[in-house]
Amino acid sequence: MINVLFVCRGNICRSPMAEALFRYLVKKENLTNQIAVDSAATSLWQIGFPPHEGTLDILKKYKISSDRLIGRQLKRKDFWKFDYIIGMDESNLKNIYRITGKPNHPKIIRLLDLTKYRKDIPDPFYTGDFDETYRLISVGCRALLNKIRSEQNL
Asked: Where is the Phosphotyrosine protein phosphatase I domain (predicted)?
């Protein structure tokens, strides 16, 4: 099983959106028996909470399930469990490196570095623009799935 973890600051906006969308793409490609998906936060603020209403609204708009999305914190042991650890922005990457104790490890990737954009995904908790966040996450998730398919011969 290939394990993918999406990480953002609070695990209520970007990373659960990416988790749900990536799970949707994996299911659409009939890869659910080969790829598992989760998400986590680098902070403690929203542990145990469901995603932000804006995230839930955008997932509903695109008919993507939000089942099983509950905020949790990234743990050091997650480094060993997951094959791909995907941060939403540069700050997330620094916190992932700190928490896992694995700075600059190749399995830790900023999502949009897999695309032509090569930038941070803005946090809609602050910007309010869940549509733009979804658009960028969608592009990144499709690129990530292509990367995994290529690297894992799927």
From this structure: 2-147
